[in-house]
Amino acid sequence: MTNIGAGGAAPSLIRASLSRTGKWAGSIAFIGGAVSDILNPLAPFAAYIALVASIAAVIIAIAIVLRLVLAAKALPALVFATSAAAVAGGVYAVQKETSSQNGIIASLVPAVAKLQQSIGIVSEKVAKIEQTVTQTQKTVEEVKKSTDTVAQKADQIASAQQQQTQQGAETQKTVEAVKQTTDTLAAGQQQQQAQAEKLQATTEQIAVSIDTIAKGFAQLAAQGGAIAEPKRPDEFYHNARVYELSGDMLNARRAYLAFAGFDVDAIDPYTRFATLLRVQDGKAGAREVFGQLAEKAKAPSIKLVHLLQFDDAQRVDKLNAFIAANPGYAPVYYLLAQEFSEDRLGSQTLADKRGEAQALTKFVAYEKDGGLLKYFVDQTQLADWLDRSRSRLTALGDVLDPARFAPSLTPMRSNQGWSMTVSLPEPATAISWRLGDSGAFTDTGVLALNDQRTGKPMPNPSFELPDSTAATTIAIKYLDIRGRETGPFDIRFDPDAALQQGDKQILDQFWTSWIAFDAGGNHGLVYFTQMLSYRCAIKEVRYSLNGAALDKQIKMPPCDKKDPYAIPYDYQPYFKVADSVKSMSVQVTYTDSTKSPVRDYKRQ
Question: How confident is the model at residue 203 (pLDDT cuts 50, 70, 90)?
């Protein structure tokens, strides 16, 4: 490699390079500078060329110094780069100096300016094209957004349509299901109708069969003795009765079970069988046997007798439930009546009597047109039930009359107020009262003695009210001997009417005290103090002496409702008579316009 730094060789090499390269390098650099000057309106190309050429010259010079390239080969490039940098730098420096935006040549040569104008038009069009492209891009983006929105809406519409399609399918399924259900219901109704008709026919057949069984049973009973090989229901029932009456309880039990196997809906065989079972196995054993029979049987009579084997607390509720399910089943009313009977309870409350009477009345009502015959095989049992029912209804009397057997109040007025005495239609364990239509009830308490009818302390039958009590309603209720609440019963209380009625009752009851001749040793005086004390019930008092007409009148002072029994201090409760008066006749007209009998009084 040639050493660029050796003595005179380097200058000669540089001169040779400049002579060979300088001409064309300078020409090209000059042309490049001119072109960059002309293109200056578009961009500062002179500055760009100067910068690039300077960097290239520096790089080439460093490479030559570091001997990375041969100097002979690199010097032409260095000369070209240096020339281009010098020319372009000079052009850019002059442009800055002259502040020429269109370049130096354009300012000197008009033809070049026109050329730049053409270039400027092209540039403007290019700018417009760029602007158009930008707007087009924005439009495209907006169109894309609109397209996306449309696509989203389309998806929503498609989803909605799909949902509507699904709903339509579900609706169609629902309609089909409803139609199917309707068809099923219609078929069920037809089936129920057919079953009802079949049940009616079966009921009629059963009624006929029970009539046949009853006739067969009656004939067998007349013949007497057990059937050796029983086959029919009436034969098994007959044998059960024969064995039972003869004390052969084992065979009687077997015969009753055989009869139950025919599932005949008759009440008397099962009530008799239940009685036998309770004697042998107790109530629990009878309940177990009839529970097994009731599970398999269809006859209501078996299920009914099964209910009778429960304890007292459950039995009434179960019978009422049976009535709710079978309201037309006549025997249940007789059996329900027994739950309230005196034989079952020992002593009856008014509610028990009414419950018994209501049930027996319903039972007897079915006797019309032979409505009870279909429930009995042994007609003597039906006759016994009817006789007992009529006898009990006669004994119970008019217990169902709502106007009777209600509590009553007896008001008694004193100078301090009212004393109210309660009369009840039956023994009670507690009595309470309330003034008016609302509010809490007040218990009357108990007396210091026991009621022999209940074995408990006797409730106090009275309570007090102030004399200022106005006309109102008094409600009374009580607990019967079983602790069941009865009432309340509303009783109207009118103080004025009560005062008059009470005084009238006393005057009628103690009429012998109306008149007193010569009382207390006061000879010649006739006292009427008792009538005066109870004058609130008196409208008029007329009298006569020695049997004459009632032509005289005793003037009474007005009634003082606040102090009704007090005699006014300025009123004389007597009048004088002659010694010739031997008798006196008196008649009282009460405030209710009724009149007492004429009362006669003899002077002693």
Answer: very low
